[in-house]
Each structure stands twice: as structure tokens, then as C-alpha cells.
Amino acid sequence: MKLSIALSGGAARGVFHLGFLDVLLKEGVEIKEISGSSAGAIVAGAIACKIPLKDIFEIVKSKEFKSIFKFSLKTGLFKIDLNSTILDKFFLYDDLSKSDIPLFICVTDFQEEKALYLNAGDPKKIIPASCAIYPFFEPIVYKDKILVDGGYKDNLPSSPLNGNILGINVVPNCKIEKLTHKNIIIKVSQMLIRNTINYEKIKYLIEPQEICKIRAFSFNDLDECYGLGKKYAFNWLRQL
């Protein structure tokens, strides 16, 4: 089976992608091309370089990974340390165009207010830019463009892909139980993110409702999220 794959953003929930795709690859699914926004961009880059996904999962859980997020009050609460050597472990080459599998990273051009689907350029700038969700992270300036999180304009970037597309969206429609200030902000953010998605090209869609119980901005649920991805992958393969 050969698929093109689009991976959504979703912060720590992006670990679901690792579990799901680890199963698919071990079951012999061939990835024709791949795209990603935000957390999905990190996973897409690793897959495009054929890095074992279990290795990426262990890196994400490490203290070294958390150390790349530096406190800053310049143009965001944090900035991503673009000089950290750990970024080299997520993408093995010095240019996106050198990946083993065709790769598209979705970023948002802040000034032009449009999505860019980049398949060439510096991965140590472009992939972090796709994760630069403001106001949490500073925008990243690259080639005279101000780049921010790809999820602002296309959180499930199927546009550059062709063939049979599998889309994995870890920002499903999560209902809220109580009308609290925090829950309303989360729900509004979710609606805005989901409204960026074009489902027309996607043949197979994975939107795991169970992931709603997993906190997007916490490192405490990573093992559960990874296991959930594996569970959904096995179930999906059985239903084909």
C-alpha cells in the first residue's frame, strides 16, 4: 500500500503521529510523500529522512529536547534555540530537498497572511518556524520573511500532496464539559484551527476522539499518546 500523508499540528499530541506511523511502516505501508504543520512538521521531517520513529519518541521525552525552548519576552514568551544540536536529530540533511521521501513543511507567511509549503531550504529554520505558535514562541525570520506556525493557515496540509492521501488530525472536535474561561479559550482556538483544514483531497482521515483527554501543552501524557497512536493504526489497518 502506497500513501501520501498529511500530519496536523497539535503540540504534544503530535506524539500520536509517531505511534500511528511507526505501526504503518512496520506493516509495510510505503510513504510516497509527506507534509506537516507544527508538531506534524517535526514528525514529517523525521519520516522523510527515514529516522526510526521510536528514536524520535525517546528524544521528545528527553530533558535535552525540552531545553531547546528558552524563556524570552522579546516577541514571545519563549524562543526555540535554533543553534541546539538536538535539532540535527530530527532531520539528517542540510536542506529539505535532500530528504529521502518528498517533504513539504507548511509555514505561515506572517506579513502576507498565507500558507507556504516549503520543500527546499534550511530545515533548522523552516521546521522550527512551522512550530512557532505565537504568542508562545517568537516568529522566525528566514530569507526576509517572518514565519510563524503553519497551523494558522493550514493545520492539515494536504494541498501539496497527490495520490491516496491519509490525513491525521490530532485536533478533533473536542466538546467542553463546563463553560469556564479556560475551556472557552481552548474551544475557540480549536475551532479556528479546524477551520483552516481543507478535507476535499483527503481519502483517509484519522481524527481520534480519545485524544481529547490528552493535554496538548503537557509532557506528562506522551506515553499514553504514543500508545493511542499505535492502537488507532492497528484498528485502521484491520478495517481496510
Automatic annotation (TrEMBL):
Q: Which Pfam families match?
A: Patatin (PF01734)
Where is the motif (DGA/G)?
149-151
Protein's UniProt keywords contain Glycoprotein: no
Active-site residue list: 38, 149
Statement: the UniProt record of this protein carries the keyword Lipid metabolism: yes
Q: What highest taxon heads this organism's lineage?
A: Bacteria
- The UniProt entry annotates the motif GXSXG at 36-40
Record keywords, A-Z: Hydrolase, Lipid degradation, Lipid metabolism
* Domain PNPLA, chain residue ranges per copy: 5-162
PANTHER family, alphabetized: NEUROPATHY TARGET ESTERASE/SWISS CHEESE D.MELANOGASTER, SLR0060 PROTEIN
Report the protein name in the record.
PNPLA domain-containing protein
At the highest ranks, the source species' classification is: Bacteria, Pseudomonadati, Campylobacterota, Epsilonproteobacteria, Nautiliales
